[in-house]
Every structure is written in structure tokens, then in C-alpha cells.
Amino acid sequence: MSQGLLLAEEKEATRAYGWAATDSSGILTPFHFTRRANGDRDISIKILYCGICHSDLHMLKNDHAISIYPLVPGHEIVGQVTKVGRQVTKFKVGDVAGVGGIVGTCGTCSNCTHDLETYCPKMILTSSSHYHDGSITYGGYSDHIVVDEHFAVTIPKSMSLHGTPPLLCAGITVYSPMLYHGLCRPGQHLGVVGLGGLGHLAVKFAKAFGMKVTVISTSSRKKKEAIQRLGVDAFLLSHHQQQLQDAMGTMDGIIDTVSAPHAVYPLVGLLKTGGNLILVGAPAASSPELPSLPLIMGRKSISGSAGGGMRETQEMIEFAAKHNISADVEVIPMDYVNTAMDRLVNNDVQYRFVIDVANTLKKPLSY
Q1: pTM (predicted TM-score)
Q2: Does an H or E element contain 312, and which?
């Protein structure tokens, strides 16, 4: 590329402002950076709200040894389109768009051509990855983002702007395996392990499908909330042996949302013959011991899921709009993010933090 073209691209790049961590302490502070120029297939989005995912915490702390600093987290983004490239067909200026966990893939592998972009081996994360041009991707704890329209979804006008961001990660993470494994039919019995950001959305989707839902939790204090407000049919304490015994062989499937190391053997016993335990939580360390004999004798299976592709994410958003599904959130200002991370470590949120970016990200006067 000629020096003239490089200078032209640099001139078109836009200044951006957000909060970033500079090392594995994970402490977030104000950060100036640039976004790439809006290309032919790109849209620019003014970020209105951004959810805080537990994986943001892992990335800030470099728990998976893949973090790139400075790191601007955030992959549950809802905002307003401010610019569209000349080849963009899905969006127009003024539309509300959502961006989830990925902003790029190879586009040619079997996963990409079968609408499974999340499983592309060259997947580019919304935050802390290298984009096609070698630049670092910066997430949604910032004022705006530029993204290829393929990796954005349209948000219906009826949806809550602050309740929608977690659907773009937590929502598709539970929705996709439910559909893939056929756990979406009225009258089926679904177990949901953990009643947090992912778990409460699994409950909401399952109830919208007309399923019977049992929550399995370590905390008795969540029982009233689960039954009276979320409408679950039963609640089991994971350490209560008699409760587990009484529920043996009753569930068609189980969505396990817990990100901390835990035993899966007791969960397998809750499945009917042919049932499936689906792991969607991502522990930072250690893996559960595989209970091979119960799997063999019950024709049961344990599987994992990282969510769905872009087409399925759009379908999930439309299903959520139709059934009035949104996340239960605590809206916070940008300068509260470090406190929110501390609370997240202690599971002190019901059920997801969402940053009010548009109203609380205070730009410096010199910006």
C-alpha cells in the first residue's frame, strides 16, 4: 500500500474514548484510541448500552492467557447506527444495532458457510483480538464502534435498550444449544444449573417454549425469586441429596451455566434415558471428571456449546422481541465499572450489569 493511501486511511480513522485495563490487574481507567475508517461493508455505531459479562472479568485478569493490553472490554453492545458503508444493505442511519462476541471470521471455512461463525478457527473477538488488518479490537466500554454489518444484528424498536445487551452473549449462549438439541418443545422438562446471567435467560426462553423448568442451585436464597418471579416449576439445592434423589431420571436435558469448577456426576443422574447435559459455563481452570458409566448405562451425553452464529442470533433477538424477553439488569455509570467487577467476583448482581454508556461516559474537554 502506498504512503498516500496509508495517510488517507489514517485521516479517515476516528478518535474514540473508553475505559481500558493496561495489565492483568484488571483495573479500568479512561483511555483514548482510534477506530478504523468506516469501510464499504461497515457500519459505525454510537454505543448506548454495553453489558458486563463474566468473561470480561476473565479477560481483564488474563485468566485464559490470551488477553492483549491495553484492553477495552465489552461484547454486549447496543447502539444507534450513525454511518453506513456504500455496500451496506441491512442497516440505515438511525437504526438500532447490536454487536455480540465476534466481529470477524475467515468467511470461507465450513463453519462460516453454514452460519456457525462462532466456531470459525479464525474467529475475531470483539475485544482483545487482532483484526484482519493486524490492529487490536476494542470492545464496547467506549463511545462508538465500527463493525462489518454481517456481525451486527438489527434490534426491533419494541425491545428494551438496556435489557437487550446481555441477550447478545448470555442469551444466544443458552438459546442456541436448546434449539440444536431439540430442547424447545412444550411439555419437555429442562434443568437449569445456576441462576445468574445465563441461567435466568435460559429460564425465560424455556418458559416461552412452554417447557417445565427446574433450577438447580447452591443457594437457597434464590428459591423464592426463581419460583415466584421467574415462574420455574421446581427448585433443587445441588447439595441436598434427597432432593436430587427424588428428581432422578426426570429431565430431558440440562443447561449447565456455572463457570466455577463443580461436579457433574450428580447432574447426569437427573437426566432421562437419552438425555443431554450441556455445558455453557467456562471455568477458568480445571475440568469436571467424566462419569462414563452413568453415560453408558443411560445412553446419556455431555456436550458443550459456545453459542450460535449470526443468523441464529438474529432469530433469537426476534424470538425475544415476540415473547417480551429481556435480561434483568442493574444499570450502572461508566465510572462504576471497577466496583462492578469486584461485585461480580462475589456474584453480587441480579442478574447482569449494563453500562449506560451514552449518558455516563464523560469525555474530556479536549476530546
Answers
A1: 0.94
A2: helix 310-322
In tens, the pLDDT along 24-51 reads: 999 999 999 999 999 999 999 999 999 9
Buried residues in 157-186 as b, exposed as e (16+ CB within 10 A)? eebbbbbbbbbbbbbbbbbbbbbebebbee
Cis upstream peptide for 351 (omega within 30°)? yes
User: Which of 320, 321, 344 has its CA nearest to residue 332?
Assistant: 344
Angle between helices 170-180 and 310-322 (to 10 degrees): 100
Which H or E run contains 31?
Answer: strand 28-35
Which residues are paired to 145 by β-bridges?
A: 45
Comparing CA positions, the residue from 14, 17, 13, 139 lying closest to residue 68 is 139
The pLDDT > 70 percentage for the chain reads: 95
DSSP annotation string for 49-109: EEEE-HHHHHHHTTTTS---SSB-----EEEEEEEE-TT--S--TT-EEEE-SEEE--S-S
The confidence score (pLDDT) of residue 263 equals 86
Give Cα 137 distance to the centre of its chain.
17
